[in-house]
Amino acid sequence: MKQLYIIGIGPGGLEHLSPAARAAIAASAELVAYPLYLDLLGSLTDGKTRHDRPLGEEIARARLALDLAASGRPTALLSSGDAGIYAMATLVFELLDREPRPVWTAVAIQVIPGISAMQAAAARVGAPLAHDFCTISLSDLLTPWETIEARLHAAGQGDFVVALYNPVSRRRTWQLVQAREILLNYRDADTPVIIARNVTRSNESIAITCLTDLEPAQVDMLTLVLIGNSETRYIRGWVYTPRGYQNKVSSTPGQAGPAVVKITK
Amino acid sequence: MKQLYIIGIGPGGLEHLSPAARAAIAASAELVAYPLYLDLLGSLTDGKTRHDRPLGEEIARARLALDLAASGRPTALLSSGDAGIYAMATLVFELLDREPRPVWTAVAIQVIPGISAMQAAAARVGAPLAHDFCTISLSDLLTPWETIEARLHAAGQGDFVVALYNPVSRRRTWQLVQAREILLNYRDADTPVIIARNVTRSNESIAITCLTDLEPAQVDMLTLVLIGNSETRYIRGWVYTPRGYQNKVSSTPGQAGPAVVKITK
User: Fold this and answer.
1) Which A positions 158-197 lie with beta carbon below 8 A of chain B?
2) Which residues in B lie closer than 8 A to residue A126 (C-beta atoms)?
3) Residue partners of A36: CB distance under 8 A and separation at least 6
4) Are the beta carbons of B141 and B168 closer than 8 angstroms?
5) Can you tell me the distance from the alpha carbon of A21 to that of A31, in angstroms, rounded to the nearest whole number?
6) For the domain that residue A135 is a member of, what is the CATH number?
7) What is the pTM of this model?
8) Predicted ipTM?
9) Domains in chain A: how many in total?
10) Beta bridge partners of B5
11) Which end of chain A has a smaller Cβ tally under 10 Å, C or N?
């Protein structure tokens, strides 16, 4: 059987690489990925052919992976995080849909999920994603800004916790400012915000701030931004969003936790 | 050090249990969880004390886990999926916030993320979560229905892919009908819908249908429902949501994939 594995390797630290992902990498002869992700895998790539392609060549990478698998070599197409969330899996299906090649029909495809950056970031600070949330990519490379703007308004109106993917790039910073301003129409200035960079990697840094103080200078391409909803609370270094709006936990008068305050870890 | 691990064990199949979660279970003497989740772990629970509490006793479970950890026994509080997504982690922080006990201050807490059901379900069928999405719990036990309804409208307006958690319970089925009717105001009747039950477990079943045909009878408490957005496509057994709205993949005239059709796997 001709095999293509589409693998999410998780946020970076190998302690979050699932056994399913590890087994699929071991079973592959050809590894196709952005170079950084192959480096994160360390010795797991030993003895395999690395096809490291730069950022921006995502479609070429997906096509190459399909071609390699069709040639009979077991192939892994790797993304960081979850391969199905803002990552490579969808490009493979889009190619199969829109540019099908007869040789690809013999390829068996298996998608293996992984821990996404928002989940690793949330775990580091508590449980900010514990109730309804949405993810929005601020990259307007493939999605018109009007669509992104409408989603930010919808997120505000629906009081969703928001995970911002691709918050900035080297040349693209005003979108994050716009996102902040749109959400400030719906949320308090002191809404907790988590700025998580390189989560679970050796150079991890995590800061907790508040919505009004969120600035592009704090963020880069390796950063994920989590913005609380109207219920999200900051307590002694932790951030959590309660499960519901009618507290089952009895509130002891005078013992409520501290109000949300800005800190930087 | 007094230690409490809050662990997401993933969707069920141990091939998705992260090494970090496995190590934390191994380091724990006391395991607190809903019985089904402990059963999923098989021999990993050998030699440990099981505190299996029924559904509905979530706060008692969180309190017990904090007390056990405070007593000096390394303790794991386990959820299926991601401990931070509609799960136990937030209850621990809510207790620390609203009902703090002095003995709990000595407990070091570590949250370990896991693969959520929506990710495992998405991987099985392709890449439906590949662009902006939101999660909505249809349980109105703790959240007023008006809030849930507002979120369904926001999800429709924002054209988010929607993951429905807690779609029904034994006595609660009209909410799923309402959710379908609200989303049908914004989306085509043939929008792809994935109905995933017990994903990655021995009795997994996955069906692909369309929005207008989504019925409570197809769904139970162990089911996750994924609803595509206006761009989500069904092709030959796979479902994917394209990464953007301006296709970089060239469309070959006359070679476009088949229109969305209803199938049941």
Assistant:
1) 158-160
2) 84, 89-90, 93, 111
3) A80
4) no
5) 13
6) 3.30.950.10
7) 0.93
8) 0.93
9) 2
10) B76, B110
11) N
